[in-house]
């Protein structure tokens, strides 16, 4: 069982807005930054959001991140077929002295 | 172009050893934390270990403590993972990651532990 909790699946139709939640605790999300990664089928993960809500260059502004207390969310607006992928949240955990990941959310574009 | 290229994976028997390597290019390797993250077949991501810019701090997930050792050579822009006493549950694709927030990822190298 993962330290960070994500829903195993999410879905939406093209053009819709979907959100993926990530729940943690005071030792991780509550006191450290949250990062989000996108893993397209058969490829390596790619950084999507860093430091809670910052987008690396090249990541469309359709992707946004937010954090409140011990939870975080990834929002994808204007959903596209190429967004179909696995999404993972991550944060440093002060109690474990290590990075912790969510179990991943498989996004399906209907 | 920022690039991380892993090597050293393969098939090994339980109890055996492997040394993974990661060659970095396109960025100032010595300025960044580096990490290893693994993904077992059909499973999610699991952080394994990371190392500070000068190698003075290293952290490991509990399941590999005492068996795996992370190291780096800033002169060669390279990251390493010495893996001893390998178990079946260590079977995974191992990714090399660079940056404070695991900003950049390699394509991974596959480690299979099986008799």
Description:
- The complex is a heterodimer of chains A (110) and B (115).
- Chain A has no helices and nine strands.
- By secondary structure, chain A is mainly β.
- In chain A, strands 1, 3, 4, 7, 8 and 9 form a six-stranded mixed β-sheet that branches. Chain A has a three-stranded antiparallel β-sheet with strand order 2-6-5, with no helix packed on it.
- In chain A, strand 3 and strand 4 form a beta hairpin.
- The N and C termini of chain A lie far apart (28 Å).
- By secondary structure, chain B is an all-beta fold.
- Chain B has no helices and eleven strands.
- In chain B, strand 4 (34-39) and strand 5 (45-51) form a beta hairpin.
Number of strands of chain A: 9
Count of DSSP H/I helices of chain B: 0
What distance separates the N and C termini of chain B?
40 Å
What is the structural class of chain A?
Answer: mainly beta
Mean pLDDT of chain A: 97
Give the helices and strands of chain B as they follow along the chain: EEEEEEEEEEE
Can you tell me the residue ranges of chain B where pLDDT is under 50 for at least 5 consecutive residues? none
Shape designation of chain B: globular
Series of H and E elements of chain A: EEEEEEEEE
Principal-axis shape of chain A equals globular
Radius of gyration of chain A: 13 Å
Report the span from N to C terminus of chain A: 28 Å
The fraction of residues assigned to DSSP E strands of chain A is over 45%
Keywords:
heterodimer; A: 110 residues; mainly beta; six-stranded mixed β-sheet; three-stranded antiparallel β-sheet; 9 strands; B: 115 residues; seven-stranded mixed β-sheet; four-stranded antiparallel β-sheet
């Amino acid at each position: 069982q993962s330290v960070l909790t994500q829903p195993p699946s999410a879905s939406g139709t093209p053009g819709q807005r979907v959100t993926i939640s990530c729940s943690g605790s005071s030792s991780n999300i509550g006191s450290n930054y949250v990062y989000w990664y996108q893993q397209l089928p058969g490829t390596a993960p790619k950084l999507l959001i860093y430091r809670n809500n910052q987008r690396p260059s090249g990541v469309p502004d359709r992707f946004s991140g937010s954090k409140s207390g011990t939870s975080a969310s990834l929002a994808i607006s204007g959903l596209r077929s190429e967004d179909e992928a696995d999404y993972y949240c991550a944060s440093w955990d002060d109690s474990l002295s290590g990075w912790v990941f969510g179990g991943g959310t498989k996004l399906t574009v209907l | 172009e920022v690039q991380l290229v892993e090597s050293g994976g393969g098939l090994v028997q339980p109890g055996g050893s492997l040394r993974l390597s990661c060659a970095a290019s396109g960025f100032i390797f010595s300025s960044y934390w580096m990490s290893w993250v693994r993904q077992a077949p059909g499973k999610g991501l699991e952080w394994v270990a990371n190392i500070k810019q000068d190698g003075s701090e290293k952290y490991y997930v509990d399941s590999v403590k005492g068996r795996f050792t992370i190291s780096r050579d800033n002169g060669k822009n390279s990251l390493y993972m010495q893996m001893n006493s390998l178990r079946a549950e260590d079977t995974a694709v191992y990714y090399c990651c660079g940056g404070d927030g695991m900003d950049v990822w390699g394509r991974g190298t596959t480690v299979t532990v099986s008799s």
